[in-house]
Amino acid sequence: MAELHEECGVFGAYAKQPMDLAGMAYYALYALQHRGQESCGIVLNDDGVFTTHRDLGTVNEVFTKQKMEQFPSGTMAVGHVRYGTTGGTNRANCQPVVVNHMKGKLALAHNGNLSNAFELRSKLELGGAIFHGTSDTEIIAYIITQQRLKTPSIEEAVCRAMDFLDGAYSLVIMSSAKMIAARDPRGFRPLCYGVTAEDTYVIASETCALSAVGAKFVRDILPGEILTFDETGIHSNTSHCWKKEKTACIFEYIYFARPDSVIDGVGVHDARKNAGRLLARRHPVEADMVVGVPDSGLDAALGYAEESGIPFGLGFIKNKYIGRTFISPGQGQRMNQVRIKLSPIGQEVRGKRIVLIDDSIVRGTTSGQIVNLLREAGAREIHMRISSPPFRNPCYYGTDIDSRDKLIACHHSIEEIAQIIGADSLGYLAVEDLTEMIGSNQYCHACFSGQYPTAIPTNTQKDRFEGKLSQREKKKA
After folding, report:
1. Residue 202 sits in which domain range?
2. pTM beyond 0.85
3. What single string gives the DSSP state of each residue in 210-272?
4. Structure confidence at residue 251 as a pLDDT band (50, 70, 90)
């Protein structure tokens, strides 16, 4: 139950015959709702005619029965759920974005953040380009459109555009006749595709969305790969592959992805259980029960219980009708939501020594609230264990860890943090444990170690991540 801002989820579908792809996108976005609860959108392609609906809100709020009935059958669709890490919260920044140009039109959905966005925007403006976008997605769409005017195909335009982009981007792009999936050469964000029994190809951020629409997983999109779906079949462009070391976001496994998803061959549920086992070895403690913070701490709690031999128990009941705590705009509302969202089971925890497992501590306020809930319910001791290392650095690749000023681990020792949140003891996973957690060393751990896989943004670009938008951006937002 981390105080983290989510990134986004993308979806695409390509069918040989017209069908209800808007309905398919609806169910897929529902499965990806955990990746973004700020806004969502669907663009449907019916013989070159795009039907679009985007708005602020969750999938069930935006896509009412009346709105869904407005979508015709079609052969392609693109969908998106968003939590904006940059670009402001308004309807103008809802995705997918739709662009009309001299050679046609395209719809684009994007997950991630560009680490060189400020430089790209400056180059566009200095070059005399008429560009008024504030989001990374608009920058990507603009560059692809520029390249499309110079190239014979949309996939070639995407390939050339990738030469300009640095940072995290998993893309689903729809033209009048083709569907394209592209993943940045470092593979920061997940992207995969599958196929239904009706031979409809489905692209999604996570495998859980494939399952939601009855599609069989085929494979992950390779880091740097451009995959094109058209009437002649599937075409793979790997010219950007293997140019850079793969650095998948480790927090996909720790928190962002749904537990039933599989990313790059690693099951998220298994990775989280491994984290719990590693925590039990590194930070053992005498206790009566292991409790996971719903939902993100449950898998690690199972692993801790299995490794330690301490019984696993349900210490909380979760109100499933409340969104993730960071959706609240104010700290006071966030703290109130913790009480609404979680209710301790007094008869389970009263008088017991509890090992409390959660995925992270960012600011510490939410963790302190949860510990206090257990104290009020009568827990005798509370030993908190965190299935990630301490956060000490901002992220520039799609996670809204915006400033070191707000990271409690930057200003306090582990012992001090334990006192602040009211725990009897506190233990974190070590950075060196992450490789064993997922069985690979191909991941980004910059938010823990400060070792960034790309050049970090300039000071002006950093200001955007820390909420210090320029006056032009503030006016637009």
Report:
1. 8-247
2. yes
3. HHHTTPEEEEEPPTT-EEEEETTEEEEE-TTTTSS---EETHIIIIIS-TT-EETTEEHHHHH
4. very high
